[in-house]
């Protein structure tokens, strides 16, 4: 449907889907409409897939049954490592994507041999909301329970498939089992998951491939039928692969890459030392990879063999090209060539977001080779390079504008890193929201209908998002004895400081708590009062954002005690603790106590920078507003706006906070000076649009309508904005206001 035109029942702006008209409406409201593109958070499917027809048929039957009343919505896929569980499910999802038109989501759950903990439900919610264009600044998103509630609201009745890969426990599965119509959940694991019996899951075992399928896979990869002229050797090769697609793929890649290697020669190497027996034991016991992997490793040249061993010491199976470069200091060409060779041999594969990954059996074997054939000196050096990469990477990716305690800020990194500044700038330019309302709304509509997705790159956010599991694993490594090494003092609290801005912007509550716990433990072990003050301040900030005020106060008081200690060297730590305590008391509705803390923080602010002073006056204005002292609040907001102007001249504008100050001034002036209030709100709207703060923009539009400034138009726009970001309560409220307006005919 196009835009409604004419002299009556007028709508301004494009309309997508159903239009609900209430009198004259400026804007369109998206009410439970289907998106043009599905949300897809899936790994890349296998390039070659062989003979799982029976398993795919059972999944088809499962899908049909899930659509019936009281039908099963949970399927548990179980099988040994390397047998193709994930490949089978991803292939089936891709073949049936039209049946899951709303969302197709995969989540690694950390049940593989690596040290990573896997992803959690919170990360799925956050990625889903970002792809849907849902504004998580809106009320109800500040807790995991709130995110889950909104996730279920958005997915209820819509066709969604969730793949939980390498599941460790029922607790990882249960948040996805609200019995919502339209949603099906599939798990993969090496052994059955205890505790899911009440959900009556379909059990789908996946075993080794038949010899015919292995033979077809080998022929599909290796060019030239003459390579298999020795039928006896080829039959023996098929048998040696044991029905494991991963081993067959490695063997085929080796034959493809080395034209001079005959099948008979490869078979002879694979049969050495009874390796077929070891293969069969491996598949049966799932204790270790088959020794036939030694053949693939032995064929690698020196640099590729070193990289293979080094990746066996990486804390997670997935990694990026920059972490590979870190393992070859000063030799980027050698790093690239070694990685390319491992990829050609199928020892490393593509993963979502441009990352690479080792299959679990390959990764397990690489770890064994690192311990069995590498030296202790090499392993220690590799661990140091990996740890340095994630620490220096986090410091370089940190985008927060506040003062820093860690000594590495501004220091050159000893390992190659992505150019975060350039990637962040390119991302901002490619996804910049238009400064005017109508183009911005069109941008928001395109985000919602899936036609304006950002292009992946090496941005700070993307790096933190994909590296988080490895970062936490490195933090845990650094705090324990490892083959005679001592813990690295200061490593964990520096990483906690560097990740704080990412967590503050993107959530990940459980991961943030883990990082802060490790960072605080490290700061206390170092007896570094400044680091202790910083860690407890970050704890307080995180808990305050979750509404856990008593726990936040405990950490903030510990932060203040550490910052006030005679051994503390950084005065700004004391100011930060006092300011957060003031914000806490304001949240509790205690203006007098809030003023005491905020006033006490002022001497400790870094007055060489305009933004901290601007924020201080903004907080003071909020407290005066709580006290109903309008004159004092207006004065504090005036000072805040002045300092924000200085900050804009020095560092660039802070559109979001400037908009907040202007909007609060407008609310104070609305009763006595409505014209001035409207002007301030229009300026605030401009800031919120430029900052892409949709929820705040919607509230300003609603308030403009409340003040009688072209009421129908502004309420119509507010209705559309709230609809686009999924704020159903605000949609109902504004719809009610519009319904009460006189009808225009």
How would you summarize what this structure contains?
By secondary structure, this protein is mainly alpha-helical. It has 31 helices and eleven strands.
Main beta-sheet strand count, sense and barrel state? 6 strands, parallel
Beginning-to-end CA distance, first to last residue: 21 Å
What is the tally of helical segments?
31
Low-confidence stretches: 1-35, 273-289, 450-455
Characterize the overall form: globular
How many β strands by DSSP? 11
For the largest sheet, list the strands in their spatial order: 3-5-6-7-4-8
Q: Tell me the radius of gyration.
A: 29 Å
Beta-strand fraction estimate:
5-15%
Residue share in helix: 55-70%
Structural class: mainly alpha
Chain-averaged pLDDT: 82
List the helices and strands and how they pair.
Elements: E1 11-12, E2 25-26, E3 39-41, H1 53-66, E4 74-78, H2 85-95, E5 103-108, H3 121-132, H4 144-155, E6 160-165, E7 183-189, E8 202-205, H5 211-221, H6 231-241, H7 245-257, H8 263-271, H9 275-285, H10 293-298, H11 302-312, E9 318-319, H12 321-326, H13 332-344, E10 349-350, E11 356-357, H14 360-372, H15 376-397, H16 420-430, H17 437-448, H18 460-478, H19 491-506, H20 509-526, H21 529-545, H22 549-563, H23 571-587, H24 591-601, H25 610-626, H26 630-650, H27 655-669, H28 674-690, H29 694-706, H30 711-724, H31 728-740
Describe this structure in words.
Helices cover 57% and strands 6% of the residues. The chain has 31 helices and eleven strands. The chain has a six-stranded parallel beta sheet with strand order 3-5-6-7-4-8, with helices on both faces. Strands 9-11-10 form a three-stranded antiparallel beta sheet. A two-stranded parallel sheet has the order 1-2. A hairpin with a 5-residue loop joins strand 10 and strand 11 (356-357). The radius of gyration is 29 Å and the shape is globular. The two termini are 21 Å apart.
